[in-house]
Write a structure and sequence with these properties.
The protein is built from 15 helices and no strands. The protein has 289 residues and is mainly alpha-helical. The chain has 2 domains: 50 residues, no CATH class; 207 residues, MetI-like (MetI-like fold, Orthogonal Bundle). Helix 6 runs antiparallel to helix 13 and helix 13 packs antiparallel against helix 15. It comes from Thermobacillus xylanilyticus.
Length: 289
């Protein structure tokens, strides 16, 4: 532990007050520039129609109004499918997909990282190669597999493919390789089974990895509309309902801005809370000597 603290002190950069202030100012300028789209989206949700179509567009709203949200409530109230149904579909698909992906990716990465068996390197190279393909390339094979399994027009047509995202397997495998083999061997000598080692030793030490996966997979599934797999209106997601609202024309531009703000608020909130947790676990998850 003392050695780690000594290395951290050596890596600390000596910087003058003027240099620190210049670096802070530089990062603040770029941070403000990157947050501009978020500020515009928040203001657009409270703009009346005449301000939304102004050119050049204004960043901040001059006459804020809640009419966009009121119109959204009235519009959804006239739908023959309750809005709560869209919310439930999205939450169920996202929750099951995230949970399944983290479990499957972790369980598959553990033997690749900590066990030697024939074909291990070939399997990992296939995983790395699959990272090159976009979801559009695999959409037809996914549909064929879901059709053969009889899962088309069900939740599982969207959930099951999420279990097999190769990015999660790659990330978990790279993190698990950093765990010392001596720690696992000591657990085996004490009589721990493979499952006990996996759940009690490996998973806690790769916490930053699966927290990162939760963020990434949540953002992917939260924004999915299930097109091509789900056809029943009762199974449609919140993103599909928002697209239907936005396609209503110019008159629904304000309602579309309100929907966009609602949809983006959930992933941003989860990212903010999870980001602080990830930074904390990355700083404290090192092996202590």
């Amino acid at each position: 532990m003392n050695m780690i603290l000594t290395l951290r002190r050596r890596r600390r950069v000596n910087r003058s007050f003027l240099g620190s202030f210049a670096l802070f100012l530089f990062l603040a300028v770029f941070g403000a520039f990157m947050v501009l789209p978020l500020i515009y989206a928040i203001n657009a949700a409270f703009k009346p129609l005449d301000e939304i179509f102004l050119f050049p567009p204004r960043l901040f709203v001059r006459n804020p109004t809640l009419d966009n949200f009121i119109d959204l409530v009235e519009l959804l109230g006239n739908s023959w499918v309750p809005f709560t149904r869209y919310i439930f579909n999205t939450v169920f698909i996202t929750g099951m997909g995230v949970l399944g992906h983290v479990l499957f990716a972790s369980a598959a990465a553990y033997p690749l990282a900590k066990h030697k068996f024939p074909g291990r390197n070939v399997l990992f190279q296939i995983v790395v190669l699959s990272l090159m393909f976009s979801p559009a390339v695999t959409s037809i094979p996914n549909y064929m597999i879901m059709s053969w399994l009889g899962f088309v027009d069900t939740y599982w047509a969207v959930i099951l493919p999420a279990f097999a995202y190769s990015l999660g397997l790659y990330l978990m495998k790279q993190f698990m390789e950093q765990i010392p083999d001596a720690l696992l061997e000591a657990a085996k000598i004490d009589g721990a089974s493979e499952y006990r080692i996996f759940w009690s030793i490996v998973m806690p030490n790769v916490k930053p990895a699966w927290l990162t996966l939760i963020i990434l997979v949540f953002q992917i599934l939260w924004g999915t509309d299930g097109n091509g797999f789900i056809y029943s209106e009762q199974l449609k997601t919140l993103h599909f309902a928002s697209n239907q609202i936005i396609q209503g024309g110019i008159a629904r531009a304000g309602v579309g801005a309100a929907v966009a703000l609602i949809l983006m608020s959930v992933p941003i909130t989860i990212f903010i809370f999870s980001q602080s947790r990830i930074i904390e676990t990355m700083a404290t998850s090192g092996m202590k000597d």
